[in-house]
Task: structure prediction
Amino acid sequence: MGDIKTRIEELRARIRSHDLHYYVHDNPTIPDTEYDALMRELRSLEEANPGLIAPDSPTQRVAPAPLASFAQVRHHIPLLSLSNVTNRAELEDFDRRVRLGYGGDVEYVVELKVDGLAVALTYVDGVFVQGATRGDGEVGEDITQNLRTIPSLPLRLTRPLSVEVRGEAYMSKQAFADLNQIRQDRGLQTFANPRNAAAGSLRQLDPAAVAERKLHLVAYAAAGAQGLGLSCQSEALALLEEMGFAVSKERSVCSTIDEVYELCLTYRDLRHSLPFEIDGMVIKLNDFEGQRQLGATAKSPRWAVAYKFPAEVSITRLLNIEVTVSRTGSLNPTAVLEPVALAGTMVSRASLHNADLIAAKDIRVGDYVYVQKAGDIIPEVIGPVTERRTGSELPFVYPSSCPECGTEVVRRQEEVAWRCPNPLCPAKQREKIIHFVSKAGMDIEGLGESLVVLLVSSGLVTTVADLYRMPRNELLNLPRFAAKSVDNLLLSLEKSKEEGLERLLAALGIPMVGERAAQTLAREYGTLERFRAATYDELVALPEIGTKMAAGIVDYLADKANALLLDDLIGLGLNLEYRQSAVGDSLAGKSFVITGTLPGISREEAARLIASHGGVVSGTVSARTDFLLAGDKAGSKLDKATKLGVEVIDLAGLRRLIKND
Result:
């Protein structure tokens, strides 16, 4: 037992070291395959010796089950907010007050003010035991399980200290843009900015859902740091970094307020080049004894201040509001603007999100409006400049009918999006055709979005079935079409008929059914005929198929227009059977999850490879998962797989599994 315990501790220490380099320093020290092997060995030893499992083990990042609610936590040391300054004069006033109260040579530490959610992290003997939100500064919410999912938060410190660390949980600009795109595609309310997205993520009751949001953490203080033998903030930041935390790399020590101000101006101009959002700089008196002398008001310390940047907002005129219809029928409003410079680019179009926002903010056509980039990425209208109104502005009336087909629009109770319910709506059909031919659909070579628009506008194509009966002579009459390009297109279309049921189900645009769910459905039912007879109870019993997806599938199959389309495709000779047996069955009965970046192959292509050999690809790691196919930057799914003892393989490992087919 002693040898096993020693090996477990050795593995944990090595994995923590690799995590520090990967997640905090962005400098991986070993290949993913070696890291995976260490995690597999640790997980195996812990499973065989459950008495040796510790809460700070790298295998214990994601909590096993959702929470019912958040408990309250009283902060031992109040988590105060900072007072703000917005210009040089106010910054100099702060400096004068500090010098009067301090009485010695002043030195300031200046750090980036990351725009996220303040959290308090409690460590006992170097082990993370509790995390809480700021709340009202005295009492916050216990979000320990959610914080454990953040890879850059160390579960065990490099030194066995008992300390409370203060930090900021945040979402990168790219993760924010990705999350909002997903939510918009699903007809859900988008987040206004990365800060709201981070706060909303950490208040999810299911830690597994939090893990998918790709949050980060930066530490900025050690509460009660004087008890650690530290004399100043710069030493505290160095200690935090030594203990395994990410801290502001851009921090500086300044001896004059002029230096501080110049630094603030520098980062005001550089803020858009950073991968995360900042809304200012934090200036702290470096000396802890001086901080103690100056004390605090009821809300804010007297020894620190936040220099807030002016909001990156421009004013321009709203020329029009265009409403477009997506493949799912959602009506999406877009502001058409007089071009204006914003955060380094010229902006002429911006998001208006939904009808409720337009009405709540009373945004009118002809208004001068404030425009900003949400997360410094997505242009959005934040409101009208009402004092510049002349009376000629026109209140916007959101369409009660589809702008393309005239059908009365509807809105589901749980959604903010209005939708066109007409399955034959030209806009929906056009977007469905674009999806049908895409890589996520039938992957028809040479048939991209612009060509689909041309075919639809010419009247040759109105449904996806029309693609398979386009006359060659009529294609030759279209612009951009020569004999060879027409022949290549027709050949690609004919070849696509050979694709299996799994590709067809993914291409049809059935609500919420993507490539993974299509694989599951095709494998379960085998033929289109059997799938068309699927019942709700059958569907919800399948992996990957939840209640909403099952209801969407049943509604899709019950729709007369969809039934006619399926009949049409059957008559055109498409392959309506699952192609699993076409290559081999070496992966039959095995469930896979794919994560990370694979060398030389996309995740979609890997999923098809697995399915062609009989395997099933799922989107969520569970105890029923047989293999996690992991590439570079595998993320939270790798953590969950190692925790559950799921075998982790790389692309070479997958090919070894199927080499005999």
